[in-house]
Protein backbone atom coordinates (compact mmCIF):
# COMPACT_ATOMS: atom_id res chain seq x y z
CA UNK A 1 0.00 0.00 0.00
CA UNK A 2 1.29 3.46 -0.88
CA UNK A 3 1.55 5.93 1.94
CA UNK A 4 -0.29 9.16 2.51
CA UNK A 5 2.13 11.96 1.51
CA UNK A 6 1.00 13.99 4.51
CA UNK A 7 1.30 11.13 7.03
CA UNK A 8 4.54 12.37 8.60
CA UNK A 9 3.04 15.80 9.20
CA UNK A 10 -0.18 14.22 10.51
CA UNK A 11 1.69 12.08 13.06
CA UNK A 12 3.82 15.01 14.17
CA UNK A 13 0.78 17.20 14.76
CA UNK A 14 -1.11 14.49 16.60
CA UNK A 15 1.63 14.72 19.22
CA UNK A 16 1.68 18.52 19.14
CA UNK A 17 -2.09 18.75 19.48
CA UNK A 18 -2.12 16.25 22.37
CA UNK A 19 0.33 18.40 24.36
CA UNK A 20 -1.63 21.55 23.55
CA UNK A 21 -4.83 19.89 24.73
CA UNK A 22 -3.15 18.73 27.94
CA UNK A 23 -2.53 22.35 28.85
CA UNK A 24 -5.83 23.68 27.52
CA UNK A 25 -8.06 21.19 29.35
CA UNK A 26 -5.99 21.26 32.54
CA UNK A 27 -6.36 25.03 32.57
CA UNK A 28 -10.13 24.60 32.18
CA UNK A 29 -10.50 22.27 35.17
CA UNK A 30 -8.17 24.42 37.29
CA UNK A 31 -10.06 27.65 36.64
CA UNK A 32 -10.78 29.63 39.84
CA UNK A 33 -14.55 29.23 39.67
CA UNK A 34 -14.23 25.48 39.16
CA UNK A 35 -11.77 25.10 41.99
CA UNK A 36 -13.96 27.16 44.27
CA UNK A 37 -16.95 24.87 43.63
CA UNK A 38 -14.84 21.81 44.29
CA UNK A 39 -13.46 23.21 47.54
CA UNK A 40 -16.95 23.91 48.85
CA UNK A 41 -17.83 20.26 48.41
CA UNK A 42 -14.64 18.97 50.04
CA UNK A 43 -15.43 18.16 53.69
CA UNK A 44 -13.06 15.35 54.53
CA UNK A 45 -9.65 14.01 53.73
CA UNK A 46 -9.91 10.90 51.56
CA UNK A 47 -7.65 9.07 49.16
CA UNK A 48 -9.95 9.94 46.24
CA UNK A 49 -12.09 13.00 45.69
CA UNK A 50 -15.68 12.66 46.79
CA UNK A 51 -18.13 12.02 44.01
CA UNK A 52 -19.59 15.57 44.14
CA UNK A 53 -16.09 17.05 43.79
CA UNK A 54 -15.22 14.75 40.89
CA UNK A 55 -18.49 15.70 39.23
CA UNK A 56 -17.53 19.39 39.29
CA UNK A 57 -14.31 18.67 37.42
CA UNK A 58 -16.06 16.38 34.92
CA UNK A 59 -18.62 19.07 34.10
CA UNK A 60 -15.87 21.63 33.58
CA UNK A 61 -13.95 19.20 31.36
CA UNK A 62 -17.01 18.40 29.22
CA UNK A 63 -17.71 22.09 28.77
CA UNK A 64 -14.13 22.72 27.70
CA UNK A 65 -14.26 19.82 25.23
CA UNK A 66 -17.34 21.29 23.56
CA UNK A 67 -15.69 24.66 23.07
CA UNK A 68 -12.37 23.47 21.66
CA UNK A 69 -10.90 25.59 18.81
CA UNK A 70 -11.73 24.52 15.25
CA UNK A 71 -8.26 23.21 14.48
CA UNK A 72 -8.87 20.24 16.81
CA UNK A 73 -12.11 19.30 15.05
CA UNK A 74 -10.70 16.40 13.05
CA UNK A 75 -9.09 14.72 16.06
CA UNK A 76 -10.29 11.80 18.09
CA UNK A 77 -9.58 13.19 21.60
CA UNK A 78 -9.47 11.07 24.72
CA UNK A 79 -8.97 13.09 27.98
CA UNK A 80 -7.79 11.29 31.12
CA UNK A 81 -8.28 13.40 34.29
CA UNK A 82 -6.25 12.71 37.42
CA UNK A 83 -6.60 14.20 40.90
CA UNK A 84 -4.20 15.22 43.62
CA UNK A 85 -5.02 16.57 47.07
CA UNK A 86 -3.18 19.63 48.22
CA UNK A 87 -3.94 20.90 51.69
CA UNK A 88 -7.74 20.93 51.85
CA UNK A 89 -8.23 21.11 48.09
CA UNK A 90 -8.46 18.58 45.31
CA UNK A 91 -6.49 19.64 42.20
CA UNK A 92 -7.43 18.20 38.80
CA UNK A 93 -5.08 17.65 35.87
CA UNK A 94 -5.83 16.34 32.38
CA UNK A 95 -3.65 14.17 30.09
CA UNK A 96 -4.81 13.73 26.51
CA UNK A 97 -4.26 11.25 23.72
CA UNK A 98 -5.26 12.59 20.30
CA UNK A 99 -5.15 11.12 16.81
CA UNK A 100 -6.71 11.54 13.43
CA UNK A 101 -8.89 8.57 12.64
CA UNK A 102 -7.81 7.04 9.30
CA UNK A 103 -9.57 4.88 6.75
CA UNK A 104 -8.42 3.08 3.60
CA UNK A 105 -9.30 4.78 0.32
CA UNK A 106 -8.52 4.40 -3.37
CA UNK A 107 -7.31 1.28 -5.15
CA UNK A 108 -7.86 -0.08 -8.66
CA UNK A 109 -7.35 1.72 -11.96
CA UNK A 110 -8.99 4.59 -13.81
CA UNK A 111 -9.15 5.23 -17.57
CA UNK A 112 -8.60 8.92 -18.22
CA UNK A 113 -11.28 10.71 -20.22
CA UNK A 114 -10.82 13.95 -22.17
CA UNK A 115 -10.86 17.01 -19.91
CA UNK A 116 -10.13 14.97 -16.76
CA UNK A 117 -7.62 16.52 -14.36
CA UNK A 118 -5.52 14.83 -11.73
CA UNK A 119 -7.15 17.05 -9.13
CA UNK A 120 -10.64 15.89 -10.08
CA UNK A 121 -9.60 12.24 -10.26
CA UNK A 122 -8.03 12.44 -6.78
CA UNK A 123 -11.13 14.18 -5.44
CA UNK A 124 -13.31 11.39 -6.80
CA UNK A 125 -11.12 8.57 -5.47
CA UNK A 126 -9.92 10.03 -2.16
CA UNK A 127 -12.45 12.71 -1.32
CA UNK A 128 -10.04 15.60 -1.89
CA UNK A 129 -7.93 16.77 -4.81
CA UNK A 130 -4.89 17.38 -2.63
CA UNK A 131 -4.00 13.70 -3.00
CA UNK A 132 -3.20 14.05 -6.72
CA UNK A 133 0.59 13.68 -6.08
CA UNK A 134 -0.09 10.10 -4.95
CA UNK A 135 -1.50 9.26 -8.39
CA UNK A 136 1.31 11.11 -10.17
CA UNK A 137 3.98 9.25 -8.20
CA UNK A 138 2.35 5.89 -8.91
CA UNK A 139 2.23 6.52 -12.69
CA UNK A 140 5.57 8.10 -13.65
CA UNK A 141 5.48 6.80 -17.23
CA UNK A 142 2.16 8.35 -18.18
CA UNK A 143 2.09 11.42 -15.95
CA UNK A 144 4.56 14.16 -16.88
CA UNK A 145 5.26 17.62 -15.56
CA UNK A 146 5.71 19.14 -19.01
CA UNK A 147 3.38 19.38 -21.96
CA UNK A 148 0.15 17.45 -21.56
CA UNK A 149 0.10 16.45 -17.94
CA UNK A 150 -2.03 13.38 -18.62
CA UNK A 151 -3.37 11.88 -21.83
CA UNK A 152 -6.91 10.80 -22.44
CA UNK A 153 -7.16 7.05 -22.86
CA UNK A 154 -4.38 6.04 -20.47
CA UNK A 155 -5.02 3.78 -17.49
CA UNK A 156 -3.94 5.27 -14.18
CA UNK A 157 -3.20 3.13 -11.16
CA UNK A 158 -5.02 4.49 -8.12
CA UNK A 159 -3.04 3.37 -5.07
CA UNK A 160 -4.82 2.52 -1.84
CA UNK A 161 -3.81 4.87 0.99
CA UNK A 162 -4.99 5.73 4.49
CA UNK A 163 -6.58 9.16 4.75
CA UNK A 164 -8.14 11.02 7.70
CA UNK A 165 -11.84 10.41 8.16
CA UNK A 166 -12.65 13.98 9.16
CA UNK A 167 -11.11 17.40 8.71
CA UNK A 168 -7.37 17.28 9.19
CA UNK A 169 -5.87 20.73 9.36
CA UNK A 170 -2.13 20.28 9.43
CA UNK A 171 0.14 22.80 7.66
CA UNK A 172 1.14 20.61 4.72
CA UNK A 173 -2.46 19.67 3.97
CA UNK A 174 -3.74 23.21 4.41
CA UNK A 175 -1.11 24.38 1.94
CA UNK A 176 -2.06 21.64 -0.54
CA UNK A 177 -5.80 22.25 -0.26
CA UNK A 178 -5.75 24.61 -3.24
CA UNK A 179 -5.10 23.11 -6.69
CA UNK A 180 -1.84 23.86 -8.45
CA UNK A 181 -1.79 24.65 -12.20
CA UNK A 182 -0.30 21.28 -13.16
CA UNK A 183 -2.97 19.42 -11.19
CA UNK A 184 -5.63 21.36 -13.09
CA UNK A 185 -4.31 20.67 -16.58
CA UNK A 186 -7.02 18.83 -18.50
CA UNK A 187 -6.27 15.51 -20.15
CA UNK A 188 -5.90 15.84 -23.90
CA UNK A 189 -6.20 13.42 -26.79
CA UNK A 190 -3.23 12.84 -29.07
CA UNK A 191 -4.29 11.31 -32.32
CA UNK A 192 -2.74 8.33 -34.06
CA UNK A 193 0.10 9.41 -36.36
CA UNK A 194 -0.05 9.23 -40.13
CA UNK A 195 2.37 6.81 -41.77
CA UNK A 196 3.37 7.29 -45.40
CA UNK A 197 4.21 4.13 -47.32
CA UNK A 198 6.57 4.61 -50.28
CA UNK A 199 5.28 2.21 -52.93
CA UNK A 200 8.21 2.58 -55.33
CA UNK A 201 10.82 0.78 -53.20
CA UNK A 202 11.08 -2.92 -53.81
CA UNK A 203 7.83 -3.17 -55.74
CA UNK A 204 8.96 -4.81 -59.01
CA UNK A 205 7.30 -8.21 -59.23
CA UNK A 206 7.08 -10.75 -62.01
CA UNK A 207 4.24 -13.07 -62.87
CA UNK A 208 4.30 -15.86 -65.42
CA UNK A 209 1.04 -16.92 -67.09
CA UNK A 210 -0.17 -18.61 -70.22
CA UNK A 211 -1.74 -16.71 -73.11
CA UNK A 212 -3.09 -17.88 -76.50
CA UNK A 213 -0.11 -19.71 -78.07
CA UNK A 214 2.40 -17.99 -75.84
CA UNK A 215 3.74 -17.52 -72.33
CA UNK A 216 3.43 -14.06 -70.82
CA UNK A 217 5.92 -12.66 -68.32
CA UNK A 218 4.34 -9.67 -66.61
CA UNK A 219 6.55 -7.33 -64.60
CA UNK A 220 4.80 -4.68 -62.54
CA UNK A 221 6.17 -1.80 -60.49
CA UNK A 222 3.96 0.31 -58.27
CA UNK A 223 4.59 4.06 -58.20
CA UNK A 224 3.64 6.78 -55.75
CA UNK A 225 2.81 6.62 -52.05
CA UNK A 226 -0.13 6.21 -49.69
CA UNK A 227 -0.68 7.83 -46.32
CA UNK A 228 -2.58 5.80 -43.77
CA UNK A 229 -4.01 6.87 -40.44
CA UNK A 230 -6.12 5.21 -37.78
CA UNK A 231 -9.01 7.19 -36.36
CA UNK A 232 -9.17 8.03 -32.68
CA UNK A 233 -6.76 8.97 -29.89
CA UNK A 234 -3.62 7.10 -28.91
CA UNK A 235 -4.27 4.38 -26.35
CA UNK A 236 -2.52 4.10 -23.03
CA UNK A 237 0.20 1.89 -24.52
CA UNK A 238 1.47 2.52 -28.03
CA UNK A 239 4.14 0.73 -30.08
CA UNK A 240 5.10 2.36 -33.36
CA UNK A 241 6.33 -0.89 -34.94
CA UNK A 242 3.09 -2.68 -34.11
CA UNK A 243 1.12 0.27 -35.46
CA UNK A 244 3.16 0.24 -38.68
CA UNK A 245 2.38 -3.45 -39.16
CA UNK A 246 -1.32 -2.85 -38.55
CA UNK A 247 -1.46 -0.11 -41.19
CA UNK A 248 0.61 -2.16 -43.61
CA UNK A 249 -1.84 -5.04 -43.26
CA UNK A 250 -4.66 -2.58 -43.79
CA UNK A 251 -3.27 -1.80 -47.25
CA UNK A 252 -3.52 -5.40 -48.45
CA UNK A 253 -7.21 -5.31 -49.42
CA UNK A 254 -6.48 -2.27 -51.57
CA UNK A 255 -3.46 -3.87 -53.25
CA UNK A 256 -5.22 -7.17 -53.85
CA UNK A 257 -8.13 -5.31 -55.43
CA UNK A 258 -6.00 -3.93 -58.29
CA UNK A 259 -7.10 -5.92 -61.35
CA UNK A 260 -6.67 -5.87 -65.12
CA UNK A 261 -9.92 -4.59 -66.53
CA UNK A 262 -8.88 -5.04 -70.14
CA UNK A 263 -5.72 -5.75 -72.12
CA UNK A 264 -5.88 -4.79 -75.78
CA UNK A 265 -3.39 -4.25 -78.55
CA UNK A 266 -3.27 -0.52 -77.95
CA UNK A 267 -4.25 0.00 -74.32
CA UNK A 268 -4.30 -1.40 -70.80
CA UNK A 269 -6.94 -0.60 -68.21
CA UNK A 270 -6.43 -1.40 -64.55
CA UNK A 271 -8.89 -0.69 -61.72
CA UNK A 272 -9.16 -0.91 -57.95
CA UNK A 273 -12.57 -1.96 -56.74
CA UNK A 274 -11.77 -0.63 -53.25
CA UNK A 275 -10.88 2.94 -54.11
CA UNK A 276 -13.08 3.12 -57.19
CA UNK A 277 -10.13 4.34 -59.25
CA UNK A 278 -9.39 3.30 -62.82
CA UNK A 279 -6.06 3.73 -64.60
CA UNK A 280 -5.88 3.80 -68.41
CA UNK A 281 -2.78 3.94 -70.57
CA UNK A 282 -1.68 3.45 -74.13
CA UNK A 283 0.98 0.83 -74.71
CA UNK A 284 4.10 0.49 -76.84
CA UNK A 285 5.60 -2.65 -78.31
CA UNK A 286 9.38 -2.93 -78.57
CA UNK A 287 11.32 -4.78 -81.28
CA UNK A 288 11.73 -7.69 -78.90
CA UNK A 289 7.98 -7.94 -78.56
CA UNK A 290 7.82 -6.49 -75.06
CA UNK A 291 4.73 -4.46 -74.27
CA UNK A 292 5.24 -1.52 -71.93
CA UNK A 293 2.74 0.77 -70.27
CA UNK A 294 3.11 3.45 -67.65
CA UNK A 295 0.09 4.48 -65.62
CA UNK A 296 0.81 7.81 -63.96
CA UNK A 297 0.12 8.13 -60.23
CA UNK A 298 -3.50 8.96 -59.64
CA UNK A 299 -5.15 10.27 -56.45
CA UNK A 300 -6.78 7.56 -54.36
CA UNK A 301 -8.80 8.03 -51.19
CA UNK A 302 -10.77 5.39 -49.34
CA UNK A 303 -11.65 4.09 -45.89
CA UNK A 304 -11.59 0.61 -44.41
CA UNK A 305 -13.13 0.25 -40.97
CA UNK A 306 -11.18 2.66 -38.75
CA UNK A 307 -8.35 3.26 -41.25
CA UNK A 308 -8.20 6.16 -43.71
CA UNK A 309 -6.08 5.97 -46.89
CA UNK A 310 -5.05 8.83 -49.09
CA UNK A 311 -2.32 9.23 -51.69
CA UNK A 312 -1.23 8.83 -55.28
CA UNK A 313 -0.72 5.44 -56.87
CA UNK A 314 0.46 4.52 -60.36
CA UNK A 315 1.81 1.46 -62.19
CA UNK A 316 4.48 0.53 -64.65
CA UNK A 317 3.68 -2.64 -66.57
CA UNK A 318 5.92 -4.62 -68.91
CA UNK A 319 4.59 -7.73 -70.66
CA UNK A 320 6.98 -10.03 -72.55
CA UNK A 321 5.38 -12.56 -74.91
CA UNK A 322 7.32 -15.79 -75.51
CA UNK A 323 5.89 -18.01 -78.29
CA UNK A 324 5.22 -21.65 -77.45
CA UNK A 325 7.26 -22.66 -80.53
CA UNK A 326 10.48 -20.67 -80.79
CA UNK A 327 10.52 -20.61 -84.62
CA UNK A 328 7.03 -19.16 -84.84
CA UNK A 329 7.10 -15.42 -85.40
CA UNK A 330 5.17 -13.55 -82.77
CA UNK A 331 2.51 -11.26 -84.02
CA UNK A 332 -0.24 -9.46 -82.25
CA UNK A 333 -3.32 -9.99 -84.39
CA UNK A 334 -6.71 -8.98 -83.14
CA UNK A 335 -7.10 -7.41 -79.69
CA UNK A 336 -6.21 -9.90 -77.00
CA UNK A 337 -8.61 -9.86 -74.09
CA UNK A 338 -7.50 -11.29 -70.81
CA UNK A 339 -10.13 -12.02 -68.23
CA UNK A 340 -9.98 -9.97 -65.05
CA UNK A 341 -7.51 -11.53 -62.64
CA UNK A 342 -6.22 -10.63 -59.20
CA UNK A 343 -3.12 -8.53 -59.08
CA UNK A 344 -2.24 -10.48 -55.95
CA UNK A 345 -2.64 -14.24 -56.00
CA UNK A 346 -2.56 -16.64 -53.10
CA UNK A 347 0.17 -18.91 -54.47
CA UNK A 348 2.78 -16.15 -54.25
CA UNK A 349 3.45 -15.82 -57.99
CA UNK A 350 2.58 -12.16 -57.68
CA UNK A 351 2.67 -10.79 -54.22
CA UNK A 352 2.07 -7.08 -54.01
CA UNK A 353 0.73 -7.26 -50.48
CA UNK A 354 2.96 -7.90 -47.50
CA UNK A 355 6.21 -8.14 -49.47
CA UNK A 356 5.71 -4.86 -51.20
CA UNK A 357 4.69 -2.78 -48.26
CA UNK A 358 6.70 -4.42 -45.53
CA UNK A 359 9.77 -4.20 -47.73
CA UNK A 360 9.08 -0.65 -48.79
CA UNK A 361 10.39 2.47 -47.17
CA UNK A 362 8.09 3.62 -44.39
CA UNK A 363 8.19 7.28 -43.48
CA UNK A 364 6.70 8.47 -40.19
CA UNK A 365 4.91 11.64 -41.16
CA UNK A 366 3.98 12.14 -37.49
CA UNK A 367 0.98 14.32 -38.17
CA UNK A 368 -2.29 14.52 -36.32
CA UNK A 369 -5.72 14.50 -37.86
CA UNK A 370 -6.46 17.71 -36.03
CA UNK A 371 -4.27 20.18 -34.22
CA UNK A 372 -5.39 19.69 -30.61
CA UNK A 373 -5.38 23.20 -29.21
CA UNK A 374 -8.16 22.85 -26.66
CA UNK A 375 -8.69 20.21 -24.04
CA UNK A 376 -10.64 17.20 -25.17
CA UNK A 377 -10.93 18.35 -28.79
CA UNK A 378 -8.64 15.72 -30.15
CA UNK A 379 -10.93 12.95 -31.34
CA UNK A 380 -11.52 13.47 -35.03
CA UNK A 381 -14.67 12.18 -36.69
CA UNK A 382 -13.33 12.63 -40.22
CA UNK A 383 -9.57 12.15 -40.36
CA UNK A 384 -9.26 13.19 -43.98
CA UNK A 385 -6.73 15.92 -43.38
CA UNK A 386 -3.12 14.83 -43.06
CA UNK A 387 -1.67 18.23 -42.17
CA UNK A 388 -1.49 19.13 -38.47
CA UNK A 389 1.17 19.84 -35.88
CA UNK A 390 3.71 17.04 -35.38
CA UNK A 391 5.12 18.31 -32.08
CA UNK A 392 2.20 17.07 -30.01
CA UNK A 393 2.49 13.58 -31.45
CA UNK A 394 6.19 13.41 -30.68
CA UNK A 395 5.55 14.45 -27.11
CA UNK A 396 2.53 12.21 -26.70
CA UNK A 397 4.42 9.23 -28.14
CA UNK A 398 7.13 9.60 -25.49
CA UNK A 399 4.46 9.53 -22.82
CA UNK A 400 2.69 6.39 -23.93
CA UNK A 401 5.78 4.36 -24.81
Looking at this protein, list some descriptive labels.
three-stranded antiparallel β-sheet; 3 domains; Membrane-bound Lytic Murein Transglycosylase D, Chain A; 401 residues; alpha+beta; seven-stranded antiparallel β-sheet; 26% helix
Describe this structure in words.
This protein is of the alpha+beta class and 401 residues long. It has three domains: 7-100, no CATH class; 102-184, Membrane-bound Lytic Murein Transglycosylase D, Chain A, CATH 3.10.350; 195-394, no CATH class. Helix content is 26%, strand content 30%. The protein contains nine helices and 16 strands. Strands 7, 8, 9, 13, 14, 15 and 16 form a seven-stranded antiparallel β-sheet that branches. It has a three-stranded antiparallel β-sheet with strand order 10-11-12. A hairpin with a 4-residue loop joins β11 and β12 (277-282). α4 (118-126) packs across α5 (132-138). The radius of gyration is 41 Å and the shape is rod-shaped. The protein starts with 6 loop residues before the first helix and ends with a helix. Mean pLDDT is 76; it is low at 332-401.
